[in-house]
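Example 4.3 (complexes with small molecules)
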Amino acid sequence: MTEKLFEKDSMLKNCTATVISCTPKDNGYLVVLDRTIIFPEGGGQLSDEGFINDARVSYAADVDEEVVHYVDKPLLVGSQVKVTLDWSVRLDHMQQHCGEHILSYAFWKECGANNIGFHMNNDVVTIDLDKELTEEDMLKAETFANAELWADKPVHVDYMMDVEAFKLPMRKKNEKLHGNLRIVSIKDGDICTCCGTHPTSTGMIGMIKILRFEKHKGGVRVEFNCGLRALRDMQLRTKTLLETSNMLSVKVEEVPAAVTKLKEEILELISKVKAKTMEIFLLQLPQIMDKAPLAVNGCKVVMVAQECDAKEAKALMQLLSAQPKVIIGIVYRSGNRVNYQFGLGEGAQGDCKAYCLAANEIFAGKGGGSAIFAQGGGIYTSDWQEKAEKLKTIILG
Ligand SMILES: [Zn+2]
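Answer. The structure with zinc ion bound is encoded below.
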């Protein structure tokens, strides 16, 4: 059994140890020592990193009470080695992990919500709560949690028997746990059972910042950051917001209103462009009809292939359907899709369903309908307008 020095003192940055075993594994080695300061992944906390002599430890796992270190160089069994912790990694993990204790406590205390899930990786930390909460709740819990940091409260680790431990006002009582339990308590604050590493006082966490929350399985999922991660995140967000406010030539707090106005202006311009496009089409219509080739059955064939939306395509179809003896094909691109519609003008003969099947083939799409109207959609390719021309040839017969 490895002596886990990190359980008693989370501030140890190096120690000496004896190599118990060293086994080749994949491109590296699995090393067991008689004692270590490297925390193995577990209990929601990520693995520490560091060095054993000059062998880099990239990961550690707890296997039957032994800490197995994944290293890149072999170590001599029986030799004395120096274990060095990558403190920046440990501090980051402790900040996120202990920050999670405190934020969960804040939600429990201030909003009556229980933490029912926790996830942490190198980018994101989330907690799942069993109750739907509001933005106001988020602000309340976040402020409460940060006040716990400003008070720089000591964080204690104690060992006690289950019976004694369960008498404590714990946030989360796991009745499945038995025997001698490891209790992590923050003075006049959160108390819970935990095997992880924690800072000696809450001030070391620095900052707890909620980034977003969303509904999740009847409750909410809260994404947050602590310590250096929170600072870096705020630096990036501040920079982005400042750049945006400069681009829009407004104050930071006026950015949302300015973007809303911009969106409205764009929508207005789009609708003006659409109206103009339709006007131009109307002006060109007599010419289009004059130049339209004749199908074998004597009907004119008009094929329109342009970028537009479904509403515009419908308007075009209506306009063309009012023309006499015309077979209409409208092919329009919408993002990475190509859609198509086929219809008949007054007194025209044709089989729109058959034209649609031909289009399905050409555009690798799906669709159908009747002899008088059919529609479908397929995949966009850069030569989609040439494909529409090919379709026209097929309709001409
Ligand atoms: Zn913990």
